[in-house]
Structure formats: structure tokens, C-alpha cells
Design goal:
With about 300 residues, this protein is mostly helical. It has a two-stranded antiparallel sheet with strand order 1-2. The chain is elongated.
Length: about 300
């Protein structure tokens, strides 16, 4: 490696390359536990971060690099040598526990918690390790954090809670886990200037299993959520009969028995079909932005 000034502030074992990476950082990044132990025995500095302008993750230490890649024994050696599990990256203020939870390295997360890592230490956006684990679907890591008394309802700066992040991403296992640990099923956050609940986020993205779990735990169906359900169902209907509508440019009539879903963007065809509908009228709450006909 090329040698230069850098964050080590001098020569010797803590000298840095052009990106502020020390020998200890490189050994930790690669998971070379024997090299790490030799360097630590020689009193290598565990707190030197990479340069903010470098190619590496901005401002991260050897411990954070090892946690990111799941090098359990390296993490153990660094913590044993005095590396703080609560030291954060300069970019994003993410701790080693936050990074381990994000990447799903459950054993590393468990070790950091037992060695004093703060389970609810937030990043710059206010996201906690549990929040990021929920967002990425890291069920085992989320289990470790919840068992370590992480808050299931701590919001980010935008108001979104872990349950919302898991529901939005469709992680049904994480949603079930959070609900078991008393997550507030109707907690709402601000997203794109609109207040959303976990149920609405799941419905909007078609996560049926997540929506079912939330409803079983008492999620409220608001007017906005009902509108999302309507949009989603109409979209499913449209996809279901799209092939039929392409094959038959016009439908002279509808069968008098059995349920039918008929969706089309052709207003003239809708006008033609309305008189031939069965006696049961279609729902009146179809949003005007969707020129779909729903007949049951």
C-alpha cells in the first residue's frame, strides 16, 4: 500500500495509506484475525477512521469494517482490546451494531450487545439498529435486539417506526416478530408529506400477508387505506382479465350467473355494457381516476 500522511498522524504501525486506512483496518476488513491480534499486541490504534474523502466507507473504523463483513472473531479481538462498540461512522453516524444489524450478521450483533453496545443508538436519520434490521428483513438480528430491550416503537426523525419499515418492505416475519413485542399497530409516520400507517404502506405495495397480520392485530382501516385497497383490487382485476379483453374487442353481454370481474379503459365499451349488468349494482366508491368497471 502507498504510504502517506493521513489520519494516523505519523509513522509506525498506525501509518495510513492515501485513504486513511491503517494496517489494522485492512486486516479487520479482510477478516485476518491472526494479523489483527498481532497488530493489537503491538498497540495499534483502534480508533483511527478512514478519510472522509477517501474511497472507503467514509470515516469508519476497523471495528465497523469488521462488523460490516461479519468477521466475528475480529470484532471480538477489537472489543477485547478496547475498541468502543458505540463509536460511529462520520458519514451517517452509524455504529458497528447498526451496520451488523443492517447486514444481518446476527452473531456479531449479539456479541456487540453483550459488550456494551447501545441497542437504540440512532443514526443521523434517527434510525435505530432495530429499525434498519426491520427495513432489510433481518429477522434474527431483530430478535436479538428485541430480546436486548430495543424499543419496538422508537420513531425515526420522519416519524416512521420499525413496524412501518418492515411492512413497507413486505417482511412478514419481521412484522410478526414486532407485533409479538407490542409494536403499535396503528402508529403513523410522515412519508412524502403524507401520514401513513403500516397497513396503508403494506396495502399500497401489495403485501397481502403483512396486511392480513396487521388487520388481525387490530389495525384500523382509514379512508386513505380503504382507497389503497380499492386501487389494489382494481389493478388485480385489470390484470386478471386483460388477456380476455384483448381477445375480444367487444363483449355483447355478461353471463347471468357467477362472479365476474371486468376492467377496461374503454369508456364507450363501459357505456355499452352497463345496461347488460346483472341486477346487483357495481360498487359506487370506485375512484374517478380509474375508469374501471367492477361487476360481481
Amino acid at each position: 500500500k502507498r504510504q502517506g500522511g493521513g489520519g494516523g498522524g505519523g509513522g509506525g504501525i498506525d501509518r495510513c495509506d492515501v485513504d486513511g486506512r491503517t494496517l489494522l483496518y485492512h486486516a479487520s476488513l479482510l477478516g485476518c484475525v491472526d494479523c489483527v491480534k498481532v497488530l493489537l499486541a503491538a498497540r495499534a490504534n483502534t480508533t483511527i477512521p478512514t478519510h472522509e474523502g477517501g474511497r472507503e466507507r467514509l470515516g469508519q473504523t476497523a471495528l465497523i469494517a469488521a462488523a460490516r463483513h461479519g468477521h466475528l472473531e475480529v470484532v471480538r479481538a477489537l472489543v477485547d482490546a478496547g475498541a468502543s462498540p458505540n463509536r460511529v461512522k462520520r458519514s451517517g453516524n452509524a455504529s458497528a451494531l447498526f451496520i451488523a444489524a443492517q447486514q444481518g450478521h446476527t452473531a456479531v450483533a449479539q456479541l456487540l450487545v453483550t459488550r456494551g453496545a447501545t441497542v437504540d443508538l440512532p443514526s443521523r436519520s434517527g434510525a435505530t439498529p432495530l429499525s434498519i434490521a426491520a427495513q432489510f428483513g433481518r429477522t434474527a438480528a431483530a430478535q436479538v435486539l428485541l430480546e436486548s430491550k430495543a424499543s419496538a416503537n422508537r420513531p425515526q426523525l420522519n416519524g416512521t417506526v420499525p413496524l412501518y419499515r418492515a411492512a413497507m418492505a413486505g417482511h412478514a416475519d419481521v412484522v410478526a416478530l414486532l407485533l409479538q413485542h407490542k409494536a403499535l399497530v396503528n402508529a403513523a409516520g410522515m412519508t412524502m408529506s403524507n401520514e401513513e400507517t403500516a397497513l396503508r404502506a403494506a396495502s399500497l405495495r401489495g403485501h397481502v400477508e403483512v396486511a392480513r397480520q396487521l388487520l388481525e392485530h387490530g389495525a384500523c382501516i382509514t379512508d386513505r387505506t380503504m382507497q389503497v385497497f380499492t386501487h389494489f383490487l382494481l389493478f388485480v382485476c385489470f390484470c386478471f382479465v386483460f388477456t380476455l379483453l384483448r381477445a375480444r374487442a367487444q363483449c355483447p353481454s355478461l353471463p347471468s350467473d357467477g362472479p365476474w370481474w371486468l376492467c377496461t379503459h374503454d369508456d364507450s365499451l363501459l357505456d355499452q355494457l352497463l345496461p347488460s349488468l346483472p341486477s346487483r349494482s357495481p360498487p359506487r366508491s370506485i375512484p374517478p381516476s380509474h375508469r374501471f368497471l367492477l361487476a360481481v
